[in-house]
Write a structure and sequence with these properties.
The complex is a heterodimer of chains A (415) and B (128). Chain A has 415 residues and is of the alpha+beta class. Chain A is built from eight helices and 22 strands. The N and C termini of chain A lie far apart (62 Å). About 4% of the residues of chain A have low confidence. Chain B has a single domain, classed as Immunoglobulin-like (Sandwich). Chain B has one helix and nine strands, in the order H-E-E-E-E-E-E-E-E-E. Chain B has a five-stranded mixed sheet, with no helix packed on it. The chains are: A alpha+beta (415), B mainly beta (128). Chains A and B meet through helix 3 of A and helix 1 and strand 6 of B. The complex binds copper (II) ion. Copper (II) ion binds next to loops of chain B.
């Protein structure tokens, strides 16, 4: 097994990128440098593509009503077809976690309906000595743990690129509601891997979904063995709902949303580095400020970043008067230590009061008192974490619209 | 064998370099050629498009149930023009001036291209 620094998403992908370059150059019988030159010239994209497995052919387009199982009425969610964004005002005066019926849905296609009597979870590949198949009961009968963690879509905040640059980034035009915190209950992935005879030479682990696109994304063995990397079967004390991955999903805390594969049917464990379109073509940063990073089209997205949201309707109305305004901030790097608020376009800032619990890999709630006078406001919030990361005022444009975490003016009218 | 493949790739790349450059603003004035395209899970119709060089207006309708986008890439997989998002049931337009060459049209959403959402766009000089 490799070093534990591969628990770090960025280190992991940089290491694998480098290995891919050496391997391809060797296969073609040329130097690494020459190979990189050819890549830059576009001569090798076809060779890169052949690395990737072909997904099974697409099925017929489902009716929109079939895309998601749970009700997603417009007063609770913004509708983007198979994707549903939580409206932040629904969290006003709610507890710490997002209830299952309010949790955002990010589906690459539609929610598959899975019959647990025939469902199996296969753990296989060159990285295990004894490939195993688990039934749903097998999973439920294994020792389980519960953790509170956030899961956030890598494209959360994407619509703000258009506001900032007048140019739309590709993908679902989320505001800030593609995030949720839940209590996840499941079996440590480590337990399954060990039962299947994880080899010392194993390097990568790739869970694969049973959805139409077979969404899959690799991680290092080191990350797979972390105590809070789970095969989740329950969410907030209830059986994992279909839209959130029933019968099981993977929880990969701190890594970007797409890593938390839903409806898992297979986990490949390999002695060789693994790749998928979800870390080469997509979830990469492409734009004037980013360089290509073969085999990916740009720097691979690793961490999310620090963000904040207010529990207020977007561009809504509130009555005048003294009120407690609430919000939440989160960072993948550590707990939140400071939240500043500005009601005058950033001229002056006041501190919000951060409430407990406040821990890493989840969010912190905060509030401030506002004597709201009639008028139009753009409330700005800027959070800082214990590692010193703070929300910037500008984020460079990237075509797929990831990592928009700049301070955003939240429009609100006081009547 | 591998070396040979490499040479083929290389020579293709050289041909492309000679055959076209990035699209310019040199399209003749007047009405653009209109090309209607349908995107859905998981295909782009038609799969092959042929147009003459110059201004082209792509009218792209999403008849699927989920979001898609529409992008044109040159032979080096560099983005030439794109529609960032087409909601299900909606139609968007893309006006672009194209130079002769072979392009790919595709949906850039994760996994969609590999599932079949790609096609060929051949821009051929009328004089040849
Ligand atoms: Cu698509």
């Amino acid at each position: 097994m490799e070093g534990s620094d591969l628990k770090d998403e960025q280190t992991y992908f940089l290491t694998r990128t480098d290995e891919w370059i050496w391997k391809k150059a060797r296969e073609l019988g040329i130097s690494r440098r020459r190979f990189l030159g050819l890549l830059a010239a576009g001569a090798i994209t076809a060779a890169g593509g052949s690395l990737l497995q072909k997904p099974r052919p697409g099925t017929a387009a489902p009716a929109p009503s079939e895309l998601v199982v749970k009700p997603t009425p417009p007063d609770l969610f913004y509708d983007f077809g198979s994707n549903k964004e939580m409206r932040w005002e629904v969290m006003t005066n709610r507890g710490y976690v997002v209830p299952n019926e309010l949790f955002f849905v990010r589906n690459h296609t539609r929610t598959p309906r899975i019959d647990v009597s025939t469902w199996r979870l296969r753990v296989e590949g060159t990285g295990v000595s004894q490939p195993l198949e688990f039934t749903y009961d097998d999973i439920l009968n294994m020792p389980a743990v519960s953790v509170v963690r956030y899961v956030e879509c890598a494209g959360n905040g994407r619509s703000f690129f258009e506001r900032a640059y007048g140019k739309r980034a590709s993908g679902t035009q989320w505001k800030l509601g593609a995030i949720g915190v839940a209590e996840w209950t499941g079996v440590p992935l480590r337990e399954l891997l060990e039962r299947a005879g994880l080899k010392r030479t194993a390097r990568d682990v790739m869970p694969e979904g049973l959805d139409d696109l077979r969404v899959r994304r690799p991680m290092s063995v080191a990350k797979a063995l972390e105590p809070d990397t789970l095969v989740v079967f329950a969410m907030n004390g209830q059986i994992l709902p279909p839209d959130h991955g029933f019968p099981v999903r993977i929880l990969v805390p701190g890594w970007i949303g797409v890593s938390n594969i839903k409806w898992v049917g297979r986990i490949e464990v390999s002695e060789q580095p693994l790749y998928s379109p979800w870390n080469t073509d997509s979830y990469v940063l492409i734009g004037p400020d980013y360089k290509s990073q073969p085999p990916a089209k740009g720097p691979i997205l690793t961490y999310q970043n620090i963000k904040s949201a207010l529990e207020l309707p977007w561009d809504g109305e509130i009555p005048a008067g003294r009120r407690l305004v609430r919000g939440r901030s989160w960072s993948p790097f550590g707990k939140i230590v400071k939240v500043e608020v500005s009601l005058d376009h950033g001229a002056t800032w006041q501190l919000a009061t951060i409430r407990d619990p406040n821990a890493a890999r989840t969010w912190a709630r905060w509030d401030f008192l506002w004597d709201a006078k009639p008028g139009f406001y753009a409330i700005r919030v800027r959070a800082t974490d214990e590692k010193g990361n703070t929300q910037p005022f500008r984020v460079p444009f990237n075509e797929q619209g990831y990592l928009y975490n700049a301070v955003v003016g939240h429009p609100i009218t006081v009547k | 064998m591998r070396r040979r493949l490499l040479y083929i790739l290389l020579s293709l790349n050289l041909l492309c370099a000679v055959g076209f450059t990035s699209p310019g603003a040199t399209a003749p004035p007047g009405k653009p050629k209109v090309v209607e395209v349908v995107v859905r899970e998981f295909e782009i119709v038609p799969k092959e498009i042929a147009v003459k060089p110059g201004e082209v207006l792509f009218v792209v309708r999403n008849t699927g149930a989920i979001e898609h986008d529409f992008a044109i890439e040159d032979a080096a997989a560099k983005s030439v023009a794109r529609i960032a998002v087409i909601p299900p049931g909606k139609q968007e337009e893309l006006r672009v001036a194209l130079r002769p060459g072979l392009y790919t049209v595709l949906c850039t959403l994760p996994g969609h291209k590999d599932a079949g959402m790609k096609g060929m766009l051949n821009v051929q000089d009328s004089s040849s």
